Amino acid sequence: VSQSRYLTKPKNKMKNLKLLKAHKIESAASKDTNRPAICSPFIRDGRLIATDGRILASVPIEGLEPEQEAELEGKKLPIEALKAARKVGGTREENSRLNITEDNRCEIAGGASFPLPELLPEAPKVGYIISARKHPDEDDAFAVTLDVSLIAKLSEAIGDQNVTFIFTKNDPKSIVTMLPENRNGAFGLIMPRRTN
What we know:
Low-confidence stretches: 4-11
Mean pLDDT: 87
Strand order of the largest sheet: 1-5-6-7
Order of helices and strands: EEEEHHEEEHHEEE
Number of helices: 4
Number of strands: 10
Shape: elongated
Radius of gyration: 22 Å
Largest sheet: 4 strands, antiparallel
């Protein structure tokens, strides 16, 4: 029996991506359809990035080989595919799995397939922004852990979505003061939080 029939080449060579389901990266993407370059999360340096021009989120992609990183650089992922992939496997699965095919489609388990968003306009180069990221062990930085749900609740209580945080110098465990940008006379306090 000829073995050639068993060595058939797969139709589409896929790049397999693995993302934590906890990462809802599309939340940071722009909703402004006049800015299509940033309406979808995109791949840069082996990470999935989303930005709306005011905030930027970057999450790791697992399972990529270095040559695959280069091939996927700048590709945008469809938000519908990210959401659908999170539903596969329910809560038993910690990761979402997506496959990018050579014909520019994003496939998920169960057979659903989504076209990748257009490459143009090109996703922004964000290296210079990411290089500004601070690490807690740097001399001019300190880390503070805050519960964002409390920030949202307090923001509503003091009547302004734009707030200023005031920290006690060199004391990341102190009470944090939150002032409304509109200076309406209100203020909020966030109590220190225990961290491991």
